[in-house]
Design brief:
The protein is mainly alpha-helical. It is built from 15 helices and four strands. The chain is globular.
Amino acid sequence: MADRRTVVYDAEAGDDHERQGTLWTATSHIVAAVVGSGVLALAWTVAQLGWVVGPLVLVGFSCVTYYTSALLADCYRYPDPVDGAVNREYIDAVRCYLDRKNVVLCGCAQYVNLWGTLVGYTITASASMIAVKRVNCFHRDGYGAAGCNPSGSTYMVVFGLFQLLLSQLPSLHNIAWLSVVAVVTSFGYSFISLGLCAAKWASHDGGSDIRGTLAGAAVDVPREKAFNVLLALGNIAFSYTFADVLIEIQDTLRAPPAENKTMKKASFYGLGMTTVFYLALGCTGYAAFGDDAPGNILTGFAFYEPFWLVDVANVCVIVHLIGAYQVFAQPIFARLESSVACRWPDAKFINATYYVRVPPCLRSSASPPATVAVAPLKLVLRTIVIMFTTLVAMLLPFFNAVLGLIGALGFWPLSVYFPVSMHMARLKIRRGELRWWLLQAMSFVCLLISIGASIGSVQDIMHNLKAAAPFKTGN
């Protein structure tokens, strides 16, 4: 899920809204939006569900996501999906079709999901930093050598400080190459992970030894097995969620043909390709490791040779998340700063901007004197947000649990409830009709999945807090 906000700012880079997007550009945006750090947990996820349920659940989430994406694509314009007025953001569509209460709920769901993603990115990036040091240590001193398992708190602080610096740079959201970097690096570590898993599987009697069971990883306590299954569902939900940027992707498409028709085809192709890749990586990882599949495939315990390739994959994760963090944080910053500015419009501290001259040592002698704009409000608010995010990540440094919780909290409201509710409002489907019952039944089942995944994630966080000290990144 990291990665996916990059398409929003790429689409708005010119801010002229001369939409020239096609079926294939939209498909690539969707693939880039969906494929992200969630792939690192796919092997563990399939291991909890088993050879039968695991692939079926991956396909099931794909089908539900495609169906609700098609419903949401029809809400890009209001009131008619072909000739109506354009909604450029998800919350604009909710505002047109639903009441104010739903608009507030949508805003809360979006910003909670965005902030939760920042926490997840901090944990994931620090885990990859640790993995680079661990793998090099194993290569130098041998696998399992003492001193090769550093704490993650230092790396989280370093990551947070770097994000603090980036957050003060002007016009970060207009850097067009950010999407390119995100796509290249996300596909880089995804395909390296797939290749490493395939090589590991091939090492078992030439691939003839397929590990794992039909029912998934066995545990001594049935209650623990149930919680692991729920957590796995949350991880899959995290891996498929992209509804919060679907409207923005659709806003890049040219017409004719109608944007909703193109978007439905793009969703089908994009989710289809993603599902095939997810099945390949999840099943290959499970065949390679069986019930011992790690929570994060690149943390250094699963693979430590060839060390340079594992290092490249983890560096790709770090670079990807450095940019993706800022793109996810920008809407939060903008909302907080605009709210404070509206609340105190006459306060000098809030509206002041100072221009600081760049020292000569930081610029070439031939360049003219330059200044950097410094806004106290921007500096204070963004520092508070990043510091708080880093602190929460340090207190809850558990990769699978946090990803599962983010997926659980964002899946039902953003991917199911609002698209279904807007669809029923658009077509004026009455309560009690057959279609109403079917849609409500699907929404209710997805709600139960989200609740169950949230319970599994929270339970795993509580269990890890008892078993491991905070400030040490979990695997």
